[in-house]
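OP here, attaching both records as promised.
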Amino acid sequence: MQGAHVQVWYDEPAGPGVEVSTGPAGFASMPAPVGDPLRILVAVANFADCRRARRYDPPVGYNMSEIAKGGLSAENTCGQVAERTKPGELVLFARPSKWYEQLNKTPQ
């Protein structure tokens, strides 16, 4: 999605994280991590996240070595889209939010 704001954390979701925005093609570059993280955690801020909501579960982390090796694609409950990941890519799916979904959204 063009213009999506994504919060990024390395290893643990501590603090506000780093916010990246997607460009015209829907891609965003993640900032270089400090140290050698094992996983990345992400949250979509201004669109509806297409991953299954897990209210009381810990955030889903994506293995950095798997992303570097062949790329990873997150869960997509919004539709059936075929995608091919490339090494170094993490693909997230999002859609525009409905007006009523914004009413109960808690700030990150």
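Record two, same layout:
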Amino acid sequence: MFDHRAGARECYRLTLLGILLTSHGPDIENLLVRHAGGLSVTAAEATTLEHVLDAADWLRDPAVLAMRDLSAHVAARALDSYNPETPIEGER
């Protein structure tokens, strides 16, 4: 999770790791794989996908989406970005 300012309002947003650690994490991983494969998604899934892409804009890269084991790459990269020493307000 990281601190985020939206105009004068302060709010918190989940990082990709935070998103994947929710109860919906496995479904989101499957959604990413389906998206990468060019399969259609529902309107609700498209909204979820947009939130995930906002949290990890590197997932918009066609080379990343073409990776053979995208799910494993996403998990590894999400874990690599985790630093327990970083204060919440330090993430941007």
